[in-house]
Amino acid sequence: MSLQTATQLAVGNCEKLGADETEAYAQKTRTVEVVLERGEIQCERVKVHQGIGIRFLKDKTLGFTFTSDL
Predict the structure, then answer these.
(1) Of the candidates 5, 32, 48, 50, which lies 20 to 30 Å from 67 by C-alpha distance?
(2) From the CA atom positions of the chain, what is the Rg in Å?
(3) If we measure between CA atoms, which residue out of 22, 24, 26, 19 comes closest to residue 70?
(4) Measured between alpha carbons, how far is residue 29 from residues 12, 48, 54 in Å?
(5) What is the pTM of this model?
(6) How far apart are CA 67 and CA 3, in angstroms?
(7) What letter would DSSP give residue 20?
(8) Distance (Å, rounded) from C-alpha 32 to C-alpha 61?
(9) Rounded Cα gap, residues 28 and 64, in angstroms
(10) Maximal CA-CA distance, the chain
(11) Domain that holds residue 23
(12) Dist. CA 19–CA 40, nearest whole Å
C-alpha cells in the first residue's frame, strides 16, 4: 500500500467515525550509511523509514496518532 493510499484511507476512516475535521500526513526517509577504513568501503547500509500521522478534531477535542507499522 502506498503512503498516499494509507493517508487517504486514514482520513476516510476518521470521517466515518464522526470526526469533525481530519488531517493526515506521510513521512518517508532514506538513510545511507557507509563505513570507510583506510580509504576502502568496509560496509554500507540503506535504511528506509516511513509512517503516517493523523490529527483530528471531534467535539472541540484534538486527537493525534502516528504509526510506522504499515
Answers:
(1) 32
(2) 18
(3) 26
(4) 25, 6, 18
(5) 0.69
(6) 12
(7) S
(8) 40
(9) 19
(10) 62
(11) 3-67
(12) 55
Give the position of cell 500521522: 53
Residues, the chain: 70
Residue 64 burial (C-beta neighbours within 10 Å; 0-12, 13-18, 19+): exposed
User: What is the number of H-type helices and E-type strands within the chain?
Assistant: 1, 3
Closest CA to 14 of 67, 66, 57, 68: 57
Q: Which three cell numbers stand for residue 47?
A: 535504511
- In tens digits, what is the pLDDT along the chain, a chain of 70 residues? 888 999 999 999 999 999 999 999 999 999 999 999 998 999 999 999 999 999 999 999 999 999 988 7
- Report d(CA 58, CA 62) in Å as an integer: 7
Domain total of the chain: 1
* Buried-state track 43-63, b at ≥16 Cβ within 10 A, e below 16: eeeeeeeebbbbbbeeeeeee
